[in-house]
Amino acid sequence: MSLDYPLIWAGLIGFAVLAYLLLDGFDLGIGILFPWLGGEAEQDIAMNSVAPVWDGNETWLVLGGGGLFAVFPLAYAIILPALYAPMIAMLLGLILRGVAFEYRWRTVRGKFLWNMSFTAGSLIATVAQGIMLGALVQGIEVDGRAYGGGWWDWLTPFSLVTGLAMVVGYMLLGSTWLILKTEGALQELSRRIAWYAGWGTLAFIGIFSLWTPMLLPEYMERWFGWPAIMYVAPVPLLVLAAGIALFLGLRRKAEAQPFIFSNVLFILCYIGIIISFYPNIVPPSVTIWQAAAPDSSLKFLLVGASVLIPIIVVYTAHAYWVFRGKIDASAGYH
User: Fold this and answer.
1) Phi, psi of 66 (to 5 degrees)
2) What is the pLDDT of residues 291-308, one digit of tens each?
């Protein structure tokens, strides 16, 4: 029996994108929260909590984007022209944030400028990611084998609300990460922020659960058609359970539980997007198999991926293991 190489690669790229959302989500969230973290000492601790891992987290973004170009060239050729503006904004935000991360520690007089740059870069990148997600979910117009829409098709009420939702979701990830990694006043402040961000995240999940099926008939049939609704019903039930577990952890002042279940919420939302999209990679009209490169190319690339991806996973896990535990307030990023 021959392997379904396009489906395997769709799973690998989907895994890379999810890994990026979870890993880079909390450090982008810390950047968004930066102005509300109190004094300079608290900001230093927050930044030190992600200093060993933030650049490695973005490896998954490179893997996802590069994989899309190599494995699904038709999808790449359609999606990029549709999303040029928010994609460039995201990259500029990530660059600004990365530069601020390095230079913030090299100056005293201009530190406030790099603090603002760190927040601005994180916010721009997050909003751009949300807008790109919203534009993809609402569907991309395809003409033959090329993008058939206009320059501003990505800018809609749905995509703008998705951008706002991404900001709130990353704030939840960032605040629960600080609960896990810090102590004292900063941890208590993070717990209060997580409480509000948690309610905001659940509210947005509810909004999109009702709004998304109205965008395309395929989505409506997938979520509310019979008997499909019987198969997808566990997803919203699991979202409800994860939300309860999140707030129970916050109420009990648990440290790991809020972070774990905020990530579970993101994973469940991601599963919901997959349910809506499958078998399309560019909704509503381009399937995984239509967009894929020839099987011979996919086989060749899979050999390299079978070596590269385990190395990235092991390296990432090792970095998080080495820098586990609470942040030492006396330590610094150099």
Assistant:
1) -65, -40
2) 999 999 999 999 988 998
Upper half-sphere CA count for residue 66 (Cβ side, 13 Å): 12
Could you tell me which residues come within 8 angstroms of residue 135 by beta carbon, excluding any fewer than 6 positions away? 82, 83, 86, 153, 154, 156, 159
- From CA 233, how far away is CA 296, in angstroms rounded? 38
Task: Give pairs for 13-18: CB < 8 Å, separation 24+.
Answer: 13/63, 13/64, 13/67, 13/68, 13/71, 13/72, 14/274, 16/60, 16/63, 16/64, 16/67, 16/309, 17/60, 17/64, 18/267, 18/270
Let me know how long the chain is.
Answer: 334
Task: Name every residue whose Cβ is closer than 8 Å to that of residue 152 and which is 6 or more positions away in sequence.
Answer: none
Please say whether the dihedral angle defined by the alpha carbons of residues 176, 177, 181 and 183, taken in this order, is positive or negative. negative
Q: Structure pTM? A: 0.92
The rounded mean pLDDT for the chain is 89
